[in-house]
User: Which sequence fits this backbone?
């Protein structure tokens, strides 16, 4: 009997029940909610499923993120900025830059959406974060997970990288919930019904030259942006040049999805109750939400100004796509516009600001790095 009792005691002591705290239970419930949103509501499932499952794992078995744990090595690739750069290459290979080339005014909408980043920066300073931490936190306002991870690692803010990454990716996934109320609040029904003219055709030469020229110009002005902007444009050049179909398919499919699995699960695994349920994390999450809302609002307001300037030729809704959540933010612009008028088709018009937002957020990250003397 003593042997059986000892065996059962050993099994119980080795189970997660013996070490699980109330905080762990709370995070497990949050992970299950995120899984529900990803699977039942289809809120960016490619991101939210691995993130929430990593969250689930680490709160049951914390050692999975410890030295020697499986996800510890995945997260090292985040810290070294390898996975964010590869994500950008995949995004470039998947994305049509034609709407931005056809309508360069979209750059203004992408730039306007970066306003949220600077709001969050000064807000973080006010909350007591140092300047580097504030810069790393503020990038959440661009709704760009890879750039958030990249900048946090470059600025040496690895201790808060987990909350920053989770907040950024969570807001990217929750774009369909967060953005529509802001969009409807700041626009009238008449504005939402505005139909935009069909974009002009973009030649193959323009499509090939665009990533090359953008890389040269941006990298010369801000060399620190080269890892992100360079990989984004390399992926797009694969897509547009037409002579490396195998590389395009690899970058936009197999490689992209492998990286998403590694990055998503490792980011989710940073959300142990001990690391996540504290005042610092709550401040980061709150600042990220404020930044994201302000970024969305700024894009819409500039869209309204452009609408007036063009005598009603631009639908202000596309300004909300200036955040970097590609292509979800553009789809939300389309959805809200279609709710006002089912015949309204804004998706391709919104892709211009969406792509501009990706470039803009990378440029802002490079600017922060230059300010702090990071090479």
Assistant:
């Amino acid at each position: 009997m003593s042997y059986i009792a000892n065996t059962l005691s050993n099994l119980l002591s080795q189970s997660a029940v013996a070490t699980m705290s109330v905080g762990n239970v709370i995070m497990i419930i949050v992970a299950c909610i995120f899984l529900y949103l990803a699977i039942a509501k289809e809120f960016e499932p490619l991101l939210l499923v691995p993130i929430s499952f990593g969250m689930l794992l680490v709160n049951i078995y914390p050692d999975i993120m410890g030295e020697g744990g499986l996800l510890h090595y995945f997260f090292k690739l985040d810290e070294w900025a390898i996975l964010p750069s590869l994500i950008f290459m995949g995004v470039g290979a998947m994305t049509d830059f034609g709407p931005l080339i056809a309508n360069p005014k979209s750059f203004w909408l992408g730039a306007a959406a970066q306003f949220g980043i600077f709001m969050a920066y000064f807000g973080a300073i006010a909350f007591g974060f140092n300047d580097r931490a504030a810069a790393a936190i503020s990038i959440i306002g661009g709704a760009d997970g890879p750039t958030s991870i990249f900048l946090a690692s470059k600025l040496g803010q690895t201790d808060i990288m987990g909350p920053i990454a989770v907040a950024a990716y969570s807001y990217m996934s929750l774009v369909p919930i967060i953005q529509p109320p802001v969009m409807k609040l700041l626009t009238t029904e008449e504005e939402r019904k505005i139909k935009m003219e069909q974009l002009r055709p973009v030649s193959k030469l323009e499509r090939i030259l665009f990533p090359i020229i953008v890389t040269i110009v941006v990298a010369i002005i801000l060399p620190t942006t080269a890892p992100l902007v360079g990989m984004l444009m390399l992926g797009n050049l694969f897509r547009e040049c037409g002579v490396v179909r195998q590389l395009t398919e690899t970058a936009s499919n197999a490689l992209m999805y492998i990286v998403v699995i590694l990055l998503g699960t490792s980011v989710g695994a940073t959300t142990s109750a001990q690391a996540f349920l504290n005042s610092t994390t709550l401040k980061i999450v709150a600042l990220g939400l404020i930044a994201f809302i302000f970024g969305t609002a700024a894009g819409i307001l500039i869209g309204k100004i452009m609408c007036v300037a063009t005598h009603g030729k631009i639908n202000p809704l596309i300004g909300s796509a200036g955040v970097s959540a590609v292509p979800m933010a553009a789809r939300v612009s389309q959805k809200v516009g279609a709710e006002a008028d089912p015949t309204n088709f804004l998706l391709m018009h919104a892709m211009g600001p969406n792509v501009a937002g990706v470039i803009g957020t990378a440029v802002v990250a490079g600017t922060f790095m230059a300010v702090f003397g990071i090479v």
Notes: The chain has a mean pLDDT of 90. The CA atoms of residues 97 and 355 lie 7 Å apart. The chain has 20 helices and no strands. The first helix runs from residue 2 to 14.
